[in-house]
Amino acid sequence: MNQLSNPVVNNQIQVPEEEKEYKIENRFLVIWRRYKKNKAAVLGLIIFSFFALVAIFAPWLAPHDPYTYDLYDSSLPPSWDHPFGTDDLGGDILSRVIYGARVSLSVAIVAMLFSMVIGIIYGSISGYFGGWIDNIMMRIVDAISSIPYFFLLLIIASIMVPSLWTTILVLSIVGWTGPARYIRGEILSIRKRDYVEAARATGEKKFSVIFYHVLPNAIAPLTVLATLDIAGNILSESALSFLGLGIQVPTPSWGNMLSRSQELTTLLDYPWMAIFPGICIVLTALSINLIGDGLRDALDPRMKR
Amino acid sequence: MTIYFIKRVLQAIPLLFIISIISFILMVAAPGDPADAYRNPELGASQDLSGVIKHLGLDQPYHIQYLKWLKALVLEGNLGYSFQDGRPVLEKIVERIPATLTLMGTAILLAFIIGIPMGIYAAVKKNSLFDYFALIYSNLGYSVPSFWIALMALLVFSLKLDIFPMGGMRENYDSFDLMDRLHHLALPALVYAFGVTATKTRFMRSSLLEVIQQDYVRTARAKGLSEKKVILKHALRNALLPIITLLGFQLPALFGGALFIEQVFAWPGMGRLAIEAIYVRDYQVIMGTTMIGAIMVVLGNLIADILYAVVDPRIQYSKN
Amino acid sequence: MSTQAVQQKTLIEITDLKTYFYTEDGVVPAIDGVSFKINKGETLAIVGESGSGKSVTSLSIMRLVQPPGKIINGDIVFNGENLLDKSDAEMRAIRGNKISMIFQEPMTSLNPVYRVGDQISESLILHQGMSKKEAMEQAVKLLKLVGIPEAERRVQQYPHELSGGMRQRVMIAMALACKPELLIADEPTTALDVTIQSQILELMKELKEKTNTSILLITHDLGVVAEMADRVVVMYAGQIVEQGDVYTIFENPKHPYTEGLLRSMPSYGKRTDKLHVIEGVVPNPLRLPKGCRFAPRCQYATELCYAEMPEITQVTEDEVVRCWKHTDRWEGQQV
Is A4 close to C306, i.e. CB distance below 8 A? Predict the structure, then answer.
């Protein structure tokens, strides 16, 4: 021990130097440290980064132009020239998969952003006003949640003429209930707390008090929600495109690359057409889910174990 | 207890109400209308359909149309008529429900039988190799698109290895052949169960882990009970409770998942019906399936809630 | 103080017990060389702040320490046998049977999905081989014993239908069901209202008289100690700092920490402006000082105290203290 001061006489508590360092550590670093410990989460991050990079550098990575087709070379098995084979129109599957990464990932992310915005606004309004407004708004959320997810997707998709943007729209419409519920819950629980009343008594606007307290704490769980939402969107988009209601050919999407394989003869004779895009979907969704889980564990202080 | 039951039922009604409104809005938003059945494309705009429109009530303001539709729905069970073959939508749906329920039911059952023990074991042997694999499995389970795993399973087990049939519910149309049915049910149910088991395992594991931390588990150990008894008797009962509500939550997703499995395996269920309808833009059928699907979900949740109340004494014997 | 003419026969003797927790952040020596004994029919109280290791001590005796904790050293000799040598099955036969335990939180210590009667019966069926019917009847008798009115009705109820005080009585009934020789009570009244507290303590005293069970009472409340204990062990940062009979501890405490604790108690009749506090905080278990662990907060501390860990000194036959002041190497203020 360095300082031999007498606590009673000095009336001061000496904190040893080493202990002071603890408090200064950056919050993000702490989270990153905890995240790192989770090997699966790190793996997820690596895999996802791989796909993200592929998506970003698509034009430089793809060996062929994904939009050209050559009927003479159609339905070829994997070879040096076409590592993933070709599809029924002669398009190089590898190139289409690479560009598909772009499409699928960007659609998933953009749709998530829309869902988040809509959801947060909706939930905020509901939670802020409370009472019967909240009641009705939440009932609507319940009702929408009760409708089987894919049914809703399909219906809305069928109402519109499918395209890239309608796909994004459809995915956003279905995904906003999660964040809405969450934000509303947080706001409601904050409202009940005493310091809100206290703040109002001192004249602070209820609005700013609530949001000042809700937002910082909400960012972390919302990030987790957002991450998992992206994963869900990737799966949903591929499902929609698979059925022809999402991203339309010739734009490559992992989902629509699989739709041909619905015909069992195609599946049997040319399995590579189904295998590769599918694996990409699985790996991407898996990696994002792992990231989401890793984030959730790293951000939750209770889990320190 | 009965009060709780009644309360829950009453709560469900406004929900159904809102669902019906949403369905109606979607229906109206859809291009085309019931009058299309009478529209002869060759005659074009000159066709005078005012009589038809009046007859079908399409000239009325929307809220009147809604009320009429609702009345027809609730009092007569009339969901409209299919665009494709003119048959009542309800009939078409109802005849498909058993198939879907068989598929879903079997998958859920499998998921429970496999998933729960897996989750328990993973929780008890936390951080072991088994736990690690269980987590990987459960993560895979909800990262894999159901239609793709269905295709792969079909490819391997049916087309290449010829263990299972390629699709459909049965080959024997003359009589009820159980083996035949099971043979056809196996692959789709297993594929479907793959995804559902994932969530069950995951949830069971975390639920049990949470329960194990509880004080009463410590008390049980302090009484000298064997670890097995502590987990299986004291912890498990509590850990299973939330699973029931989980099932309720999952119902919408489960129905959706059935869609794709049915599509790939040509399983004649509600999902397949919906997809077929979507391809031809048969909106009456689409709306009908959605509505019925949602109703089934609400009912399912209701049953789950009541089941939960039965099983958790804290709700039953509450003083309020 | 118990006036029964007990042969001072040792029921349980703990020697140099060490239980360490191997956490991600480092090794926490929750109990670092603890020795004491409990005689038959005696009530021994372990006093200390949170984190002093008192609860871990009781869990260690029952061998209920969960990973990452591990008992790495010591002997726990109960009725002539070392508990640390026993197999799991043998330990289980002792838990709830020869040694039983009640916990701090009656609200959560009972399983919410099973009836109270079933939970009591469980130990009886397990350890005494009773049939379900016999066990239930015994459970009713036990509920009466612990002072629960309408025992026949209560025995069929679920925990949430009972108040906190009643649940704690149920816990006591459960613990006493198989007539244990040692009852470990870990802060049994901390979570209860003051009025209920005194009821429970009265009950425990009554039962002790009737059954001559030894009690190991864990608490941070000196008032409870004064009421219940025959002898006291004071723990700080995983070690015993003082041990003796209850009168000596209260009237003539040897260790500065004990002094501090006693001074911090508000007392009747005396008015003060400020309550006495012991300055400072408990040391971080991951970075324990190499000298006396209480030194940074001790008003008598000298260089010796910071430099070296004091050994246990036998002050009288019954009393020990871990403090340099009571050794011949002491050069600081005279006591």
Answer: yes
